[in-house]
# Entry
Amino acid sequence: MYFRLWNAQVVSSMGDWMGFLAIAAAATRIGAGSPETAVGLVMSARIVPGLFLGPAAGVLVDRWDRKKVMVTCDLTRAGMLALLPFITHVWQLLIASLVLEVCTLMWSPAKEASVPNLVPEDRLTTANSLSLIAAYGTFPFASLVFALLATVAKELGHIDALGWLGIRQESVAFWFDSLTFVFSATIIWRLALPRLSRHQREAAHEGGRAEWTQAFSELKEGWRFIFANPVVRAVNVGLAVGLIGGGMLVPLGPVFSNEVLGAGSPGFGLLTTALGFGVAIGILVVSVLQKRVPKERVFSGALVVAGASLIVAASVSWLSLALLAVGVLGICTGSVYVLGFTLLHENVSDELRGRTFSALYTLVRMCVLVAFAFAPILASLLGHGSDALFNDSRFAIRNVSVFVPGVRITLWLAGGIILGASAIAIRSLRSAIEPTPSQTVTGGVSPHGRTPADV
# Structure
């Protein structure tokens, strides 16, 4: 049964990536006067709404039938994408991007909340590994299909009867993308997912009209649980706050490769490749050893090693050593992601699962946005400070010259942020051994009756 849900996620993720590429292409074409600004505005419409609408989406997912939520979101995205080839203004593209993002914000928590209902507890690690592959492993295939659609668009453009459609590469991509979401909705509609509980039906009474006072109360309850439950708190801090550190590597990678490693753009390509292969290895290892892995210990330990490996990568000046350290960072990143989601699936009861995953997605978006936005600024400021303190950003230790540009200092700080997140996660997981009475009542102990192992 889960395999069918996973197939839907693969198709849906493929559609998301293709839509991302096609919307960027459409924004460049429509905003011909200032294509960079148009693309920036449209991409912001895909990121910023999650910071404000994510928590509310979690409340709705916990109140509504999750299968209907996913099907409705898929069909809405299909209809919106089918209309996108006909838009002519950037503001129309902004509205469309907002609608698509809201649907994604609803679909993802609904999917994550449904996984434990379809997968045995001892298979959750494998399920989350497959989920990560579906979410990010489809990007290369989506890029390839998007490129091939240029040829399809060229051939269709020679058909006079289709001239009124104004066929372009992104137009064909939008229509193809629309079909992927219809296919995903068809798969999900045939799944046997649990129906609404009595509490949920009562919460959505009066013809489905939401009682917003109660909804706000449920939102507060969900966030209170997230901060009170030690396991959930550890996962949120580890994944979200850790991403502030790890996310800084992406915008600073080209500068680091050029200034510190002297490898230029090819070096940055090798660094991202090492990171990607590392993530794949981490996912594979955790999946194979899932029954023998103490999840809490490995989760917190992988965070520590991730922070240390980023510091090592920033400290060396040889590409080979940097690639090795970044590869280790990728292994830890893949392990942390899979184990973090597994811990949430195992330790959160069904009625709170939607809000929990929605909060996680909101925190992750916020932290990634902070990392991408402020890492270059911070590197520049620290670079100026290093130039002011040292001659050409270099100081000597026993006749050894040490180069400390702003990008290196920032990556050291990024590694320190991950280590700080790991310390908080370890402390939270240790406190889970002896849950307080309030945690026991609100779900601090796993709904299956187990408590996290000693860390």
Observations:
- Residues 305 and 332 are 7 Å apart (CA to CA).
- Residues 350-389 form the longest helix (40 residues).
- The chain is about 75% helix and 0% strand.
